[in-house]
């Protein structure tokens, strides 16, 4: 059976290397070593107070601002206007499509109405012709009947 050996000694090995030349010490403000390696004393660096900084005006940088940001209405108003125009354009396109469909429907309805009316007119004309034929047939039959009856009574 294998037993686990516990290691003795440091868990982490560190290799002390020299600090790079760009490393600045926070204590003496010299370059080339870390703060914990510092042998010099603390250096006081006098800086102006905030009040002194505020009293001394600095030169302001001129920034070129695009024309769209200079307008008083603002960028949001411009974006909203563009969105509204786009909505209006889409609505007009939708209305055009709807009108085309309505026009087609109307044309179909008119066509069907014409066919129906034409067939009704044709039916009425045929009905009138059949009535005329029937009337003429009845007139012929009555005439024949009268002739037969006249011939029968005259002889």
How would you describe what is shown here?
The chain is mostly helical and about 160 residues long. It has a domain at about 20-45. It contains 3 helices and no strands. The longest helix is centred in the last third of the chain and has 80 residues, at about 75-155. It is rod-shaped, with a radius of gyration of 56 Å. The N and C termini lie far apart (about 155 Å). The mean pLDDT is about 80.
Shape: rod-shaped
Q: What is the structural class?
A: mainly alpha
By oligomeric state, this entry counts as single chain
N→C terminal distance: 155 Å
* Rounded Rg: 56 Å
Percent strand equals under 5%
| Biggest sheet details | none
Please give the share of residues in helix.
55-70%
Total strands: 0
Q: Summarize model confidence as the mean pLDDT.
A: 80
SS element count, helices:
3
Which regions contain 5 or more consecutive residues with pLDDT less than 50? Answer: none
What string gives the helices and strands in order? HHH
Features:
single chain, 155 residues, mainly alpha, 3 helices, 58% helix, rod-shaped
Helix-strand layout with pairing:
Elements: H1 50-55, H2 67-70, H3 75-154
Write a compact overview of the structure shown:
With 155 residues, this protein is an all-alpha fold. It has helices at residues 50-55, 67-70, 75-154.
């Amino acid at each position: 059976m294998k037993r686990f050996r516990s290691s003795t000694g440091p868990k982490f090995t560190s290799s002390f290397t020299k600090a790079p030349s760009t490393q600045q010490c926070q204590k003496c403000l010299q370059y080339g070593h870390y703060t914990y390696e510092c042998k010099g004393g603390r250096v006081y660096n006098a800086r102006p107070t905030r009040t002194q900084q505020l009293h001394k005006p600095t030169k302001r940088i001129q920034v070129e601002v695009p024309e769209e940001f200079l307008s008083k209405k603002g960028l949001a108003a411009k974006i909203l206007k563009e969105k509204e125009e786009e909505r209006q354009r889409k609505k007009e396109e939708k209305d055009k499509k709807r009108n085309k469909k309505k026009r087609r429907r109307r044309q179909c309805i008119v066509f069907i109405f014409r066919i129906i009316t034409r067939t009704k007119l044709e039916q009425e004309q045929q009905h009138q012709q059949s009535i005329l034929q029937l009337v003429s047939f009845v007139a012929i039959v009555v005439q024949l009947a009268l002739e037969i009856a006249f011939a029968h009574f005259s002889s």
